[in-house]
What we know:
Elements (H helix, E strand, L loop, with lengths): L1 H28 L11 E7 L6 H9 L6 E7 L6 H11 L4 E5 L9 H12 L4 E5 L3 E3 L3 H11 L4 E5 L1 E2 L4 H4 L4 H7 L22 E5 H7 L11 H11 L4 E5 L4 E3 L5 H15 L4 H23 L10 H4 L1 H22 L9 H20 L4 E3 L2 E3 L1
Parallel strand pairs: 1-2, 1-4, 2-3, 6-9, 7-10
Antiparallel strand pairs: 4-8, 5-10, 6-8, 11-12
Helix pairs in contact: 1-13, 10-14, 11-13, 11-14
Amino acid sequence: xxxxxTFCLAIPSFMLAFTVLNTLWLMWSSLIxxxxxxxxxxxLVPARNEAANLEACLESLIRQxxxxxxxxxYDDQSSDGTGAIIERFVKRYPETVFMIRGGPLPEGWYGKxxxxxxxxxxxxxxxxxxxxxxxxxxxxxxxxxxxxxxYYAADFVSGYVQHKAATLGDSLxxxxxxxxxxxxxxxxxTLQSLHPRISHAIGQFxxxxxxxxxxxxxxxxxKDKVSEDVHFVRRMKRQGYRVVFADxxxxxxxxxxxxxxxxxxxxxxxxxxxxxxxxxxxxAATILLPLLVFLPIILSIWIPPFFPASxxxxxxxxxxxxxxxxxxxxxxxxxxxxxxxxxxxxxxPVIYVNTLSAAWRAHRIFSQGRGIVWKGRIVR
Length: 380
């Protein structure tokens, strides 16, 4: 029992230390000033059925303070009016906005890596900014990325944007993407460490030196990956390129999901790919989650009456209560730093359950030879 209590205390303590250090790093990175010059930047936007989001995205991008940039949008066989929106911007800004009409996917490619690859081939800039069609940019987003890249002499810059919840349901799903990195990965070491696993990327904002992109193999090298952003940054890190992961919540915002079901679909395809579809990791998480999250909560509130007050289980109750409070505080720090809803620290067990169930859903679907439907395509 003493070992169990110690273990329950050690995990949230470790997570809290990492979360605080990562938060300090993100706060520091947010202080790096923007730059408004430094060579042409190609802003590359893949869009598939994004009529509800694309216009606001392009309006925010066209207002950038950076002096020399172009915007190229890839219409990935949309059927909802996305193409018409792009055409309208091309007519309004013929020297800045350009359009690529996508065709059928080549064999062996997923949709987004192919769109990004096609965009990069068309780009003329010495630096490439890949960003999603559902993002909204402040006028200094390009300049901030350029400032970070120059300050740290980095080849690759990515970071946390501001994710906004559409409903209560999706707000209890997507925050897990923060804990996976804030609680378990030393973001402040992404520059110094040579290990490819100590790196991270969010596909909503990837700023990369064009020469480094081409020499590393580009998105063609991860054409069959669902989490192409994470696999690509690991590849670049493996080849010796300098990587920075920073705080970009003041520069870019995004509403990733429209409701709970949409969030589960999105997390399902990504979280299982993030662990490289390794069943032992999923099985271990399934065993550890009840032991480290739910059992301490139950036992900190209620000890079965057949256990006397002098029993080992009753004696470790204070340690279990402390472990629960530490876990809540980890989520409090994450919620405060990422501007998440106030109730997240109170409902964090639900986030764990949603994430684990999404991973199991993906495992079941993929093991049956089926796929998850995402934007009209099957992801396997």
